[in-house]
Amino acid sequence: MSGNTFGKLFRLTTFGESHGPGLGGVIDGCPAGIPLTEADIQVELDRRKPGTGGIAATARREDDAVHLHSGVFEGRTTGTPIGFFIANQDMRSRDYSAIKDVWRPGHADRTYDAKFGFRDYRGGGRSSGRETVSRVAGGAVAAAFLATRGVSVLAYPVEVGGVPARVIDPENAHARPFFSPDEAAVAAFEERCRQARAAGDTVGGVVEVRARGVPAGLGEPVFDKLDARLAYALMGIGAVKGVEIGAGFSAARATGATNNDPMTLDGFASNNAGGILGGISSGQEIVVRCAVKPIPSIGQPQRTMTRQGEETEITVGGRHDVCAIPRIVPVCKAMVLLVLADMWLLDRRLGGECPRN
Amino acid sequence: MSGNTFGKLFRLTTFGESHGPGLGGVIDGCPAGIPLTEADIQVELDRRKPGTGGIAATARREDDAVHLHSGVFEGRTTGTPIGFFIANQDMRSRDYSAIKDVWRPGHADRTYDAKFGFRDYRGGGRSSGRETVSRVAGGAVAAAFLATRGVSVLAYPVEVGGVPARVIDPENAHARPFFSPDEAAVAAFEERCRQARAAGDTVGGVVEVRARGVPAGLGEPVFDKLDARLAYALMGIGAVKGVEIGAGFSAARATGATNNDPMTLDGFASNNAGGILGGISSGQEIVVRCAVKPIPSIGQPQRTMTRQGEETEITVGGRHDVCAIPRIVPVCKAMVLLVLADMWLLDRRLGGECPRN
Amino acid sequence: MSGNTFGKLFRLTTFGESHGPGLGGVIDGCPAGIPLTEADIQVELDRRKPGTGGIAATARREDDAVHLHSGVFEGRTTGTPIGFFIANQDMRSRDYSAIKDVWRPGHADRTYDAKFGFRDYRGGGRSSGRETVSRVAGGAVAAAFLATRGVSVLAYPVEVGGVPARVIDPENAHARPFFSPDEAAVAAFEERCRQARAAGDTVGGVVEVRARGVPAGLGEPVFDKLDARLAYALMGIGAVKGVEIGAGFSAARATGATNNDPMTLDGFASNNAGGILGGISSGQEIVVRCAVKPIPSIGQPQRTMTRQGEETEITVGGRHDVCAIPRIVPVCKAMVLLVLADMWLLDRRLGGECPRN
Amino acid sequence: MSGNTFGKLFRLTTFGESHGPGLGGVIDGCPAGIPLTEADIQVELDRRKPGTGGIAATARREDDAVHLHSGVFEGRTTGTPIGFFIANQDMRSRDYSAIKDVWRPGHADRTYDAKFGFRDYRGGGRSSGRETVSRVAGGAVAAAFLATRGVSVLAYPVEVGGVPARVIDPENAHARPFFSPDEAAVAAFEERCRQARAAGDTVGGVVEVRARGVPAGLGEPVFDKLDARLAYALMGIGAVKGVEIGAGFSAARATGATNNDPMTLDGFASNNAGGILGGISSGQEIVVRCAVKPIPSIGQPQRTMTRQGEETEITVGGRHDVCAIPRIVPVCKAMVLLVLADMWLLDRRLGGECPRN
Asked: Where is FMN annotated to bind (chains A, B, C, D) (predicted)?
């Protein structure tokens, strides 16, 4: 397996399984002089913790305490790589040993066996959602860098289990269950999850991420477009099956006259482009959405196969969430932050100069 | 600008503007011993040529004759880089000089100015759709390599200007106007384009790409998932605003019980996953769709700005297509081929070993 | 700072400062199924520990206990990234605070200030020789992989402080002081170091690395030649100022007739090429040497500057080695192992297929 | 074969064989607004042409006329990739067909067969010295960029066939036979080459490259040090077997007291470090040397093998140089320029911002 490093100049490399000693990573390329503490990272990790999602989440305890191993001196980054580690607190292997030789539908069990010949069957190893804690930690460092450049990122669901939410107050989404952008939608989200749980089923949703303060000029034309990098970043999250920028798929049904964003002295008159033209940021808000599939671990019996090639039936036990949204929102936010930090440093003009002392 | 190289082991690097001497590129990493001729590449280039789209396309002539400059000896690849060049035949700069200082809505004019400070204003330079000829050439080489491994790729629209097509006969799509997967849909596509042209307007659509014969095990977990690479590849095409794998956005409204693909002795019972689980190919067909926005160059007047910061109105003259679908289908196909060739070589087990003589 | 990741497919990313919590890294791309334990890594780390060098080394204690954080399950690699950490045991900042604002001659103090604006002045941060523990750990994993392919690597000095050693018994060099390839040379090496210490001075040397069992075909032509990658790997070690392959600089004084290696039924009749032709391994032993400069921290007063731009004089206190050879030999070995593991996976034909179970 | 792209941000990708249609490449990442014409590149190409070396060179004619295919508009770079092509003028395959199945000693014939299974046997394909024309073209573009930053590079031999030259007037070396830094050495170089030719033999030499105007701060610590990148760049040239920085191998015999470069108000008192400390430029002149082996094609009979595994004898016919120095000096210069341009863009602080209009 390669592919555990993200970014070209602002780089995150991650490691760790859900049932090993812990997870962590290295952020390489963060400019020197950026104010950074463990607390800046911990606040983001706490947001993806189980329980955040209320009804949507499980009883499982994960105490994700991050430890910085390098790269910070006297409260600021030194420009050297930032190593971090998050120990696994709670790993009950017995919950999983039963499925050692059975491929769970919707999971990566079968494909990991096909690729690697054998795997750590305890909770999915690298294909576990737990892998994302390292992404969130990396995103928090990217946020610290981008904050010194005036860039901020918001993330929230616009849909949970088919129930839509209006984007009324995204600024305070982080404080609400489901990170809902609309106070009124919370109850409906919870009701939808209650139904699913009662049926031993699970639901998905759609997450939207907005980036503010992004100057015009970010992104490299042709293959390495800003939107291409965002799509790569978000589709690389386990449960994501679709990504769209601005008007996205609805643009495919629009016409040029209705889809183009006219320019005026006050800036663009609309934002169907989602803040990106020709793969380069236009100075508008960056708007990207991703489709999150329902969690594959359900309480109902499912037809599947064993590693030995026999048909069987499986009812996935263990403690599982009904809806991934509350845990995936901070991950989507982190991935967008990582892309923006990297594209910032890649940009010739912006260069990523850092404060001096 | 960096970002003009695609892939890690099977790599395509491209260059060229719509109004310079020509376009071309280098394919680096293609294994030795693969049968390859200029004709193999020419056939794909001819498919993206104007005219292919009938009513959808313009009268513009592009005679895209490809020349191989290296890497092939006695009809087979030598394992050395394959350089190719396609001269520009028809470049009437005067068509474009009028817009030298005016930013066309929906185009990259404004963002290129923001990034590079100045630009080749004749037809958009690297942001021109013409840039994609090099992608198609690279994809043809990837196809030649993958053919020796039993992998083939199909591409066709499932929707044009809001008009859907059923996927009845995708195998012969390449022979139909619009690359339609359904003979019956051609007339409806053409009618939709006629309406748009009459209104001085343009339309978009949705393109689907299928890959057959892909073995289980392709793709690198975490950041470099097969679906992440596909999203990166397709979103990097100028007009694409959305990408989805398998059930895609509809998966966000499904439940775990309905979205999971059960496994049986006969293989998977459904393919909502689009042939990818945990970022790794499952052995099923790979299915990916992308949303193509309507062409931004329209015959109607639009509000915009000049480089000097004054408001103005622009009616984009010149000879433009009504619908990008006929030209973008071969590009989508090429990008998927490039991803698969690269992931094939990246895979530990498959290794990309090549025939010997 | 970027540049903390080494390799393209078999990748080592490192972090850590000499006076932070510790050092570590991530090995990404090691094939699945390779037998690996912490002990395999610990044995190499113990070899670079102070004390190993006897007279050449300092009294400083470094108890480099490695902890594997991921990527190994039931005694074998899983194909997922291998995270490791080595805590710093002994960091007396007071030894260094005196030089906070003074640039030590021969050290990176001045250049780090120029690049990053500020630095962790305690022991040189990333420019400290301590950084190399992560390289040695990474090299041990590469060795475990290459052992399954029949490749082994030896390293030893051929010269210390101008005193030459004959390469009589390199197989047992690891068991001798200075990793000497010749029992008889140890006393001379020690005497040379004793003289230097008495003079408050330091010495350097020349390290030779040999790789056995490397099949013909490793290395990528043009920029990414096997010898180019070896030169990059070894010159990237702090104290190294020169690298040569096979006959090296003496080849510049030879003629074609004397430098060419004739081929016979028994293989090559000589090895002036050092086992590499056109950047590709020939199947002979790979032979590479590097020049190690004397340790810059000396007991004599030296003229230098302060960060504030004033001339001053410095006598570097602290506990320093007289000769870097005993500590750098395992590092040179590790870097060659990392190059070979990466080139192995990069090679089309070898592919790096891994054992199955 | 991968490995035909050099650099991370200022990237050169090359293609082409000595006996195909021609050679060329793509420079990706050159900032916009840099003055550049074909003539800027042609002057460097003309310097590596046969004939330049006088007595050292062959009668072979190579008319290396470069054509720019993209990336330049109105006399300046646009920030888009710069494609270039150099057609092969003179390729007499018959000169080479005799050696189709015989491995030439000192050449890459055997290793290419081992790696690729088959090869373009006409003149060595990618392993031919002819491949370097693309490097020289790329270096000329790097020089144009660096000139806008006040950086210049000189290259010249300090030794030819064992005959040393004093570095008296390196500024005018480009105007002398052998690019000699000393007018007086030219006759001795020529006499040495005459002797070698008379004996049907060949000679090598040592090339020194100096970079002036490089600010302090270039280079990325740990693996991607400036000296590591220089070693990679120069060792990647076919005939180079050794690279050293500053005092190089002689530093291995010096002591800390004599090797350290004291710092004074007037700067460094010496330059044993070759302008690099801890992998980062110190603001002094960068000084690097490389060992060039004698040309392996000699007029004397040599023992070798056939592809079919039989012993044989070969006397390489054709028109060959006696000494590679006159042709390799511009290549060494080009590689150093490419490294500096790339490290410049990689540097956080310098950023590579480009002129605006």
From this structure: 126-128, 278, 293-297, 319
Model pTM score: 0.95
Rounded to whole angstroms, the Cα distance separating D241 from D293 reads: 7
**What angle is formed at CA C221 by the lines to CA C218 and CA C225, rounded to 5 degrees?**
65
* Structure-block tokens of residue D196: 């070698």
Nearest to D352 among A32, A348, A354 (CB): A348
**Buried b or exposed e, range C290-320, using 16+ CB within 10 angstroms:** bbbbbbbbbbeebebbeeeeeeeebebeeeb
**Which three-class secondary structure state does DSSP give residue A275?**
coil
B354 contacts C351? CB cut-off 8 A = no
Counts for chain D of helices (H) and strands (E), in that order = 8, 18
Domains of chain C and CATH, by start: 5-349 (3.60.150.10)
Which residues have C-beta within 8 Å of that of residue B278, sequence separation ≥ 6? A107, A108, A111, A112, A124, A127, A238, B221, B225
Whether residue B293 is annotated as binding a ligand: the answer is: yes
User: Mind listing the pLDDT tens digit of every residue in chain D (357 residues)?
Assistant: 478 999 999 999 999 998 889 999 999 999 989 999 999 999 999 988 755 455 665 545 557 899 999 999 989 999 999 999 999 986 555 556 667 888 999 999 899 888 887 667 776 778 888 999 999 999 999 999 999 999 999 999 999 999 999 999 999 999 999 999 999 999 999 999 999 999 999 999 999 999 999 999 999 889 999 999 999 999 999 999 999 999 999 999 999 999 999 999 999 999 999 999 999 999 999 999 999 999 999 999 999 999 888 999 998 865 678 999 999 999 999 999 999 999 999 886 665 444 333
List the subunits that have 3+ CB pairs under 8 angstroms with A: B, C, D
Q: Cβ separation of C345 and B348 shorter than 8 Å?
A: yes
Q: Rg (Cα) of chain A, in Å, rounded?
A: 21
Q: Tell me how close the Cα of A299 comes to any Cα of chain B, in angstroms.
A: 9
Contact across the interface for B78 and D118, Cβ inside 8 Å: yes
Write the residue in C8, C348, C353 that is nearest to B31 by C-beta: C348
**Residues of chain D neighbouring B70 (CB-CB closer than 8 A):** 15-17, 20-23
Please, are residues D11 and A346 in contact by the beta-carbon 8 Å criterion? no
Residue C294 assigned to a binding site? yes
Alpha-carbon gap, residue C217 to B179, rounded angstroms: 44
Of D233, D241, D273, the CB nearest to C247: D241
| D123 at B interface, C-beta within 8 A | no
Interface of A with C in 79-98 (CB under 8 A): 79-83, 85
